[in-house]
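Reopening: Alkylglycerone-phosphate synthase still failing for me.
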Amino acid sequence: MAEAAAAAGGTGAGVGSGSAADRDRDRAGRRLRVLSGHLLGRPQEAVSTNECKAPRAASAATAAPSAAPAAQESGTIPKKRQEVMKWNGWGYNDSKFFFNKKGQVELTGKRFSTACHDDVVKIVNLACKYNLCIIPIGGGTSVSYGLMCPADETRTIISLDTSQMNRILWVDENNLTAHVEAGITGQELERQLKESGYCTGHEPDSLEFSTVGGWVSTRASGMKKNIYGNIEDLVVHIKMVTPRGIIEKSCQGPRMSTGPDIHHFIMGSEGTLGVITEATIKIRPIPEYQKYGSVAFPNFEQGVACLREIAKQRCAPASIRLMDNQQFQFGHALKPQVSSIFTSFLDGLKKFYITKFKGFDPNQLTVATLLFEGDREKVLQHEKQVYDIAAKFGGLAAGEDNGQRGYLLTYVIAYIRDLGLEYYVLGESFETSAPWDSLVEIVCLFFRVTQIYDAGACIYFYFAFNYRGISDPLTVFEQTEAAAREEILANGGSLSHHHGVGKLRKQWLKESISDVGFGMLKSVKEYVDPNNIFGNKNLL
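Support: Ran it again with your exact input. Result attached.
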């Protein structure tokens, strides 16, 4: 859908009257209401995909292979997706929303169907003709203020929602690729591919709501990247609509030596250059066997040393994530109560063995969760290799159940964060990547190591505070992350591993990529979008 709404920067009821303090309180209240608005139910409405009525002009690169089946029927949007309020714009400074009599949040403005690539081309052409601002939105899971409407934007803003562009257009079983529309969610993509015996293996924390287009535009990473790769490893072809025209390669070859890869101009562009409409991605047969596991370490340092050795030997399982002690205790608190006396006895025995017999301090130990996938025999061999390495660093096998629960905890955290808002607790996570020799120095908070590489790892941080009595809690949140980000950068960490820059972190981008690198990005933006039609003001 595309929703057009007039957006005068910083406008809203009461802006022109009252004291400065009153206006600040009003602004803070509106920002917080928007932040918590997605907790409320969405008005029931028919949300379904439509066939694109415009003739589809498939390029040679994206035409369905002759050996592939015909395009599948239109996908569906999960009911849960319909019930969750998706903020088109997530504009803390916007006032074009209201609470209806049922306490549900609704947005004003007309809506028009956007069902395919050709519809997007028409919208972009109209925006160029009438000098409108476009902000593309997929699953709305950005945590970098990437979807906020710029406060100083005076043009009409079109929120271009790709959620109806959610079909798998073709599957090529010979080349193990699938051509999909950019608005399909990860969960729906995996569900449909599973029916044919395939998967992408890309499982970001936001799998339930995030879209292929969002993955590409933010350079996403998934929990099983050790086998399947990050999004840049999965993408074979991208189609993008810009004010200058359509960007795409001429073929679906696995690799090209034709100068700098244009895909890398698109990946990470965060909606500043155009709208990603379609992509060809690699698929794999669903693995024959899957097994969870976990390892307890006496302390964080030994856990990191083990992960470093696993990365060095290039034997990482599909997923390996190291939780600090607080994360471990948090996950343990969420463990369901057992009804069996025998099971309870065994749990107590395991705890006694680790803490008393092996001497682990319950307030120091850390746990790594593991996920192995593939051929059963190879998985079992792989599992033994990893556990043997862990033993050299004091690691003890902690069971499959703990591994599975720790893996699934990733999907629960966002819901716990949302629940906290109802109790005046504002919590969030942020991430970075850092070389191995900086890893231990950077971390001193609530954290976990989520991805490992030859040269370093990805680290997640979590924080929360009770905002009762705080006049502007979002400013406190922003200042807290800014201070943490300064420390991360000062200690050799990156600006972001996979969340992106958005508007929240753009102040550090030039420092992160150099003046010349920053100038190169600006030059691309000025050529592709000279009138700043895609004016979300991310990155630059």
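The chain has a mean pLDDT of 82. If you still see a failure, please send the error message rather than a screenshot.
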